[in-house]
Design brief:
Strands 1-2-4-3 form a four-stranded mixed β-sheet. The protein is mainly alpha-helical. Strand 3 (463-468) and strand 4 (473-477) form a beta hairpin. The longest helix is centred in the N-terminal third of the chain and has 42 residues, at 77-118. The chain has helices at 3-29, 32-35, 39-54, 77-118, 120-134, 143-162, 171-181, 185-201, 206-227, 234-244, 247-250, 265-280, 287-302, 307-317, 319-322, 339-364, 378-386, 400-405, 416-428, 433-440, 452-458, and strands at 392-395, 442-447, 463-468, 473-477. It has two domains: 3-30 and 73-363, no CATH class; 378-477, no CATH class.
Amino acid sequence: MSARQSAAGESGALRLALAIAVAAFCASLAMRSRILETQDLYYHIVVGRWTLDHSAIPDRGLFSGSLPDAPWLAHEWLSSVFSAIVYDWAGWNGLVAVAALALAGAVGIVAYAVGRTAGPLPAVACALLTWGLSLNHLRARPHMATLLLFAFWIAAHARARAEERTPSLWLLPLMALWANLHGGFLAGVAFTALFAGEAVFEASSLGEAARRGLRWGLFLAATSGAAAITPHGAAGLVFPLRLAGMSTALAGIQEWRPSSLANNPALIAWLLIFLFAGLQLELRFRATRLAMTLVLIYAAFAHLRHTDLLAVGAPLLLQDSFAGLRLPRTVAAPHSWDRPWRRRWSVGLAALGLGAVAGALTGLGRTTDRGADMVTPRAAVDWALAQPLQGRVINAYNFGGYLIYRGVAPYIDGRVELYGEDFVVRYGEVATLPALLDAYGARWTIFEPQNPRVALLDLTPGWRRAYSGADAVIHVRAP
């Protein structure tokens, strides 16, 4: 490829990526109610405000009714601060926009990388698949930062390998930022190690393998050092491993469950498309890149929450293979960045971008009002505060974040790392609830109407149902 053709490909890929990112942003905004449906967002706002007010990072179980003084490693402290600032400045709309922007940025990175390597059609196809597969986990939570940073990290490593060099040292501050935002930074460190292994494996001689091993080894060490630049030091570096080891406690949380056709049909559809494309289009994959992709596929099936890493990682890892697509003659022209098609792509992208911007402005102009959902029992808590109900409460797991947001100390919330595996497992045993109520000295409870604990409380002596609504059921201890 000539320098002129390469420049045309870079320019075309950049315009395509920008248009696709804007379109993805607009489409994601339409899912605002889904984006906000997470209890973690509520306590992130409160923790972020506390951090700003006290100019300190919390190190104990703040806002918990059961373990207020227990040690707590606030590994997402910077995300909490960011969430509080955005919410106080722009409300729920601002948080929706930030989450949609993070996904749009990741999709745009995929479109640009694939576009400059393989052309516009593969870029559009990969961008659509990335966006569609990521929707299942689109929430206004810190993991959206990982999605964007992981896309940039893999794209930078893939380009460094294509140019036979180590990644830029400018990635190290990015890793330090990542480690303070979300525990997903460990995926970046792991893939640096995998790319280092690829560089050594594909060396042409033992001497070249040794030189590559030294250069990549130094970069891997620097990456690990950057990941330790957090208020928690080495403890923060191993925290994701410690959390993942709480398998029994995490088994009851939806995003930590294994993927299946019932709970993650998009992953099954993606896998079928991947197999069809590989076989029908006769794609040839590099062994190392295919191995990395299989790691991501395994992670996505092991835990729902890792599906979005596969969504952005696979096309970036396999972009070189898409450049060898054998397409029919009828689509050969739009598959390239050749001059006859350049103007047509530009006109189409301009129209797409303008339409998406108009849609985004319309979406951002609508005020978002948090109503009742699976994590927001607003009417029930309004009633409880109006009574007011006094004393300790035992709550549904999904209600913990909202109770913190409303100034009520919950028995449990989404911080599994704070409560520990034994605590979470004991809480999850429905039959032990009566004993738990007495041991904790609870005065009232709040659970989802379909929660089996509601029926148990109806039959428990000394407790009566005081509030019944579509959002929650409240029981109080009888005088």
